[in-house]
Design brief:
- The protein has about 240 residues and is mostly helical.
- The longest helix has 22 residues, at about 100-120.
- It has helices spanning about 15-25, 25-35, 40, 50-60, 65-80, 85-95, 100-120, 130-135, 145-150, 150-165, 175-185, 190-205, 210-220, 225-240.
- The radius of gyration is 21 Å and the shape is globular.
- It has two domains: about 1-80 and about 170-240, Up-down Bundle (AhpD-like), CATH 1.20.1290; about 110-170, no CATH class.
Length: about 240
């Protein structure tokens, strides 16, 4: 990635209106938090385009669903040169990250159900071409075994949908792993197994320590969403109180 000075270096994840209101109420803290949260936009480690794409991943993930932030980041990413296919791919990635409900719950279900209940719930063998293909090319994650064992047909349907995203070639292997880190490390998700796996894979794909750290910093910057949501509401309620 070629470093570039961000076109939003002074604002990062913020809107001008919220920054102005915060500066009126508490200028010192506003300047301090602005410095922290805009750092990835000013550092030049990632390109403008990719900073905005990572920010979109954090805002649009199914664990965040920040509509205002998603719109803001889509607009900023388009302004920075991102394509429709890149933006749509990130939205697809944010959709399928919901599989972590099964990554968490299926092993617990198997432990708690016990052998007899699992035997009674066993399903007849069915073809699982998508899963078989992923296993054959070394892309199968053993963390998926529990829900595959519980429902292989559904798991194959899911993997067919997921594989079409990650095998599309829209992003390079390194970019895909960096985006995946953002989804898993976001404070609205904090999925440790996935974060470790994608950091490991990102390093193998050629990502630098600085690039990975920059993605983590963007995740932290998204804490601005609290003030982006709350400051306008606080201003409205103060006005209502006179």
């Amino acid at each position: 990635m070629t470093p570039a000075k961000s076109i939003r270096a002074d604002r990062g994840p913020w809107s001008d209106a919220v920054l102005d209101q915060m500066a009126e109420w508490d200028p010192n803290w506003t300047e301090a938090i602005r410095a922290v949260t805009t750092n990835p936009w000013r550092g030049g480690v990632l390109t403008d385009r990719f900073v905005e794409l990572v920010s979109l991943a954090v805002a649009s993930a199914c664990t965040s669903l920040d509509a205002d932030g998603t719109r803001r980041q889509i607009r900023a990413a388009l302004d920075a040169g991102a394509t429709r296919d890149e933006l749509l791919t990130i939205l697809k990635m944010g959709t399928v990250m919901s599989i972590h409900s099964c990554s968490l719950g299926a092993p617990i279900l198997m432990d708690e159900a016990g052998t007899d209940r699992l035997a009674a719930a066993a399903r007849p063998p069915t073809p699982t071409p998508a899963c078989d293909r992923m296993k054959a090319i070394g892309q199968w994650n053993v963390a998926w075994d529990p829900f595959f064992n519980l429902d292989p047909t559904w798991t194959d349907q899911f993997m067919a949908a997921g594989a079409s995203i990650y095998g599309s070639g829209v992003f390079s292997a390194k970019e895909t792993e960096l985006l995946s880190i953002a989804f898993d490390a976001s404070f609205t998700h904090m999925y440790a197994p996935g974060t470790r796996r994608h950091i490991h894979n990102a390093l193998i794909a050629g990502a630098s320590v600085a690039e990975i750290m920059e993605v983590l910093k963007i995740c932290v910057s998204y804490g601005a969403a609290t003030s982006m949501m709350g400051v306008p509401i606080l201003a409205e309620e103060l006005a209502r109180q006179g």
